Amino acid sequence: MTNPLIQAYRKPALYIPLPSGGKFYTNLPKLSIDNELAVYAMTARDELITKTPDALFNGEATISLIRSCCPDIEDPESMPVGDLLVILVGIRQASYGKNIDMDVKCPKCDFDNQLTLDANIMISKVIDTESIDQSVSLPSNFKIVCNPYTLRDRTTLQVQQIKQQKMIEGLGNEALDDGARNDLFGKTFVEIAELTVALITHSIVSVQGKDTEVITDKDLIKEWLQNITRADYDIIKGKVEELSESGLETEFNANCQDCGHTWKTSVDLDIANFFAG
Predict the structure, then answer these.
(1) Would you kindly state where each structural domain of the chain is located, as residue ranges?
(2) DSSP structural state of residue 128
């Protein structure tokens, strides 16, 4: 039963377009008549979660935030990762207003500048990823249909990258002899290779060879991926990454308030610092 108090209190603060147009979701999100997603302001609990280190590390903060502020997305973990930044900007605007202040260092004089971005303008320039061709053909006459990475895939990859960084730091431990150091190095990179193949496998919808039927079985696709050339693998990975590109422009013009230098800068809109303060 829906709590009438909550239903009366929480109303959508704004509606945003999704780069994917709702495509690629396991369960299609409920969109407005204008094909836009309702976004609610953060609750006090949401703000606390965005500042919890463990929740940020394992991705639970992002998933919990989307469940709360975008309840029309039933399964946030399965959403295409290209929609993520647009949704985060929408949540930020719904909670704090349209101005987003970012600190940027001038590459010429090292002066710390404050860049103010307009969330309304950012969202109005959302890049359509829905129309990107999902298929790619290999020189070996195979046709592969792909999906973008999901939010779950992104979280898994981020956790693995943190583990890899800790491994690299661990290699400097003077207590390790050369044998132990080599074993640690080899084990970690085998894990990374296996994870990468697993993520690409998850993103492949189907594979069809010149003389084969359409194959959708994930075990068969994974085994096939492990036996193709690096060149063919990179073509498939490139298509998945193309489909996964953010639908939000993150490069902006900046002007140094001290020396007047003008340059293009990329801003990090990740949840770990996006909702800080």
Answers:
(1) 10-100+115-129+266-274, 135-244
(2) P
Mean pLDDT to the nearest integer, 45-65? 77
Tokens of 160: 């693995």
DSSP 196-256: HHHHHHHHEEEEE-TTS--B--HHHHHHHHTTS-HHHHHHHHHHHHHHHS-SS--EEEEE-
What is residue 39's three-state secondary structure? Answer: strand
Give residue-wise pLDDT tens across range 79-106: 999 999 999 999 999 999 999 888 888 9
pTM: 0.84
Percent helix, strand, coil in the chain, to 5, is: 45, 15, 40
* Three-state secondary structure string covering 68-123: HHCCCCCCHHHCEHHHHHHHHHHHHHHHHCCEEEEEEECCCCCCEEEEEEEHHHHH
- In this structure, what token pair is assigned to residue 68? 């709360």
Q: Rounded to whole angstroms, how far apart are CA atoms 238 and 187?
A: 26
Helices and strands: H and E segment counts in the chain? 11, 9
Query: What is the pLDDT, as a whole number, of residue 252?
Result: 85
pLDDT more than 70, % of the chain: 83
- Those residues with Cβ within 8 angstroms of residue 198's Cβ, 6 or more apart along the chain or in another chain: 222
E strand or H helix at 186: helix 178-203
Residues 188-239: pLDDT tens digits? 667 777 888 999 999 999 999 988 999 999 999 999 999 999 999 999 999 9
User: Over the Cα atoms of the chain, what is R_g?
Assistant: 22
